[in-house]
Design goal:
- The protein is of the alpha+beta class.
- The chain starts with a strand and ends in a 6-residue tail after the last strand.
- It has a single domain, classed as 5'-Nucleotidase, C-terminal domain (5'-nucleotidase,  domain 2), CATH 3.90.780.10.
- The strands form five sheets. It has a five-stranded mixed sheet with strand order 9-5-12-8-13. A three-stranded mixed sheet has the order 11-10-14, with helices on one face.
- The protein is built from eight helices and 14 strands.
Length: 300
């Protein structure tokens, strides 16, 4: 473990080595996003009209027709996975980690002369919705996950972007994510992650809760395979354009991303899910240990 002079340590290693194919077409309205705003999908406005006309108790045909291949299979789960607010906003979650892995791999195959590759990925827990466009669900069952179901829990049309921060700035990002941490009122700023392990002590004052940060490939056995040390002045992060633009009150030093993925985040996640977790290798329904919570209440 290598120290860089602040109370944070770091190890670098690449996360899970699944690759995504490039060039998949965009399937949703190409509404451009501004900083400090969350882009709601065109689908939601159309569905709203359906709700007014007669309600939408289940994810029915009227809702499904506004997306490409709604009944196609996005991927498979080894067992039931909770997506309740108290799960995705308080602790490691399998769907949250799936999203973070997809963000990490969103730039696979993209040429970069400066070797600008994500070293970690972060996803705000608030982007995973149990109150979907047409159905409220608190879990996903074992087996296949259809694209329309994945779309229902990921309703926001944002993009995956790449930016860089210093190690100190990375620490501040995680400190911010824990500043509003509450068992009683789970906040959307809580981060699901890939390619990193973080240790957090909630008994410490706000702004001093992050005890360590390790960039690593977290294996199924919770191991970490070290690689070359990261440059503490340039750490590349893949993340959602919503939080990059100031959503959930996050702040990033860059005004513009280094690059953006060619698809909206739903398609990025759906494509990665289908390639990384087919029927014969489903996604584990239990999350791997990436964020260690100490003195944080019942979420530990």
């Amino acid at each position: 473990m290598i120290s860089f002079g602040i109370d944070v340590s770091i190890i670098t290693c690449p996360p899970k080595s699944s690759r995504m194919n490039e060039g998949a077409p965009m399937t949703f309205a190409d509404s451009r996003h501004h900083r400090h705003s969350r882009a709601l999908p065109l689908v939601s406005s159309l569905v709203a009209a359906l709700l007014l006309l007669g309600g939408c108790a289940v994810y029915n045909e009227e809702c499904a027709r506004f997306m490409d291949d709604p009944d196609g299979v996005a991927g498979y789960l080894s067992g039931e996975v909770s997506i309740a607010r108290e799960e995705v906003r308080l602790r490691d979650n399998a769907i949250g980690q799936l999203m973070a892995e997809a963000y990490y791999h969103a730039f696979d195959g993209v040429q970069s002369a400066q070797n600008q590759r994500p070293q970690l990925a972060i996803v705000n827990g608030g982007s995973i919705r149990s109150d979907g466009l047409c159905e409220t669900r608190t879990s996903l069952p074992k087996g296949e996950v259809k694209r329309k179901v994945l779309r229902d829990i990921l309703p926001y049309d944002n993009t995956v972007v790449l930016t860089s921060v210093t190690l100190q700035e990375l620490k501040e990002i995680f400190e911010h994510s824990m500043a509003t941490y509450s068992i009683q009122s789970p906040a959307g700023a809580y981060l699901q992650v890939a390619g990193v392990r973080v240790t957090i002590d909630c008994s410490q004052r706000i702004g001093a809760r992050i005890q360590s940060i390790e960039l690593c490939r977290v294996s199924e056995a919770n191991g970490c395979d070290p690689a070359a040390p990261a440059n503490p002045n340039e750490i590349f992060i893949a993340l959602d354009s919503y939080i990059f633009g100031g959503g959930d009150n996050f702040r990033f030093p860059a005004q513009e991303p280094l690059r953006s993925a060619s698809n909206y985040n739903f398609e990025v996640v759906a494509q990665y899910f289908s390639e990384a977790y087919p029927k014969d290798k489903p996604l584990a329904n239990t999350a791997t240990s990436r964020v260690t919570l100490i003195n944080c209440g019942s979420a530990e």
